[in-house]
Design brief:
single chain, four-stranded antiparallel sheet, 7 helices, coiled coil
Length: about 375
């Protein structure tokens, strides 16, 4: 009872103090305050001031602690960037230099000690193909297509179309020239802001100074890609394709590349580069499926690993092969969130016209893709 009574008195006195600090809230007393009550009120004011001073000191301590944490975070990010730059520099194919190989292994140990995933841990690889010296125009495809169950973006140098909020077909007065959708396991951004930003991960390249734009709210879903891009010159990147997170393929104009995905896909890409073929297009789809187009040495071809998915694409490719047709892939997309939907732009070897084949479950998306292709073929909307 005494404790409760004392607590009640403290509350009453606190309100009195509050009223005294804020004159507009005072309740006018109809009787004079006694000398004893004034002394008690003065003591309570002193207690209130002590509490306020304590709160202010605590806030100052919290602010100082937060500044220290931010400073430590900045230092850690700088160290990670330095380690990453050293790592990439030593990953270039220099088989004859055993000393550099040992340095890379040492960096791996350092990165593991600081809990930074290394390329081996993330199943990604970086290679350089010295067989070609193609300029930027040669690595800017005439067509770029990307597809999900409900969204699409189709790009040609004359006509582009999309039903997605992001990426925009123009940005900063520059037009889009490449775009790719990715997918996440949960179907939402890693920051939880997909409702107010893009509904799926994407990467897009624009003409002029705008360059590459990659949805930042999904950086945790594609952490290996963001780590690789950190410190890279975006103007040097020719091509990016995203798959279900965290898989991706990236190629530079100098023919070096970086990719993350299944071990089978990584080995396939490396095989083509080892044999001096140019990888012209990559699609990464449902449950580890992939499609890789390549050319070189007078050979044009592709490799697919569809694992029983995308049956309409499987049937189409078999028919072309059985008909004796070699096809040159211009652009391809395997919907990252569908085991059936795809979009393929290709040309038969020896023919002068380009074909489009697709399986699109959403009727509205299918109509809009057909309208885009009509615009490309006729040269007008």
């Amino acid at each position: 009872m005494n404790a409760s009574h004392h607590s009640l008195q403290s509350i009453i006195y606190f309100h009195r103090i509050t009223d005294d600090l804020f004159p507009e809230r005072k309740i006018k007393s109809q009787s004079a305050t006694t000398h004893r009550e004034e002394k008690e009120l003065a003591r309570e004011r002193e207690k209130a001031e002590e509490v306020m001073n304590l709160l202010m000191d605590t806030q100052d301590q919290l602010a100082a602690s937060e500044r220290r944490i931010q400073h430590q975070t900045i230092i850690s990010l700088k160290q990670q960037t330095e380690l990453k730059n050293d790592k990439v520099a030593h990953e270039r194919p220099l088989a004859e230099n055993q000393k550099l190989k040992e340095q890379v292994q040492g960096l791996d140990a350092m990165m593991e000690a600081t809990r930074i995933p290394s390329p081996a841990d993330t199943e990604s690889t970086t290679e350089t193909d010295s067989s070609t010296s193609d300029d930027a125009a040669a690595w800017t495809p005439i067509y770029s297509v990307s597809l999900t169950k409900s969204s699409f973006v189709c790009i040609n140098d004359a006509h582009s179309s999309s039903n997605a909020v992001m990426p925009r077909l123009s940005k900063g007065g520059e037009n889009i020239i490449l775009a790719t959708f990715g997918g996440t396991v949960a179907g939402a951004s890693s920051t939880g802001n997909s409702a107010t930003t893009s509904s799926q991960p994407y990467a897009a390249k624009y003409t002029g100074a705008v360059g590459w734009h990659i949805s930042p709210e999904y950086m945790l879903d594609f952490a290996a890609l963001w780590r690789y891009l950190n410190g890279q010159d975006g103007d040097d990147i020719a091509y990016i394709t995203l798959g279900p997170s965290p898989s991706f393929y990236l190629r530079h104009f100098d023919s070096s590349y970086c990719c993350k995905g299944s071990s089978e896909m990584i080995e396939t890409v490396r095989e083509y580069y080892d044999n001096r073929y140019n990888v012209t297009d990559v699609a990464i789809g449902w449950q580890g499926t992939y499609f890789i187009g390549y050319e070189g040495k007078g050979v044009v071809g592709y490799r697919r690993s569809l694992n029983g998915y995308y049956p309409a694409l499987h049937e189409l490719l078999d028919e072309e092969r059985e008909g004796g047709h070699k096809i040159r892939v211009k652009a391809i997309s395997l919907a990252v969130d569908s085991p059936t939907d795809f979009l393929l732009v290709y040309r038969r070897e020896g023919e002068d016209w380009t074909n489009v084949q697709c399986h699109i479950s959403d009727a509205s998306v299918k109509r809009k893709v057909a309208r885009w292709w009509k615009e490309v073929c006729t040269g007008s909307p």
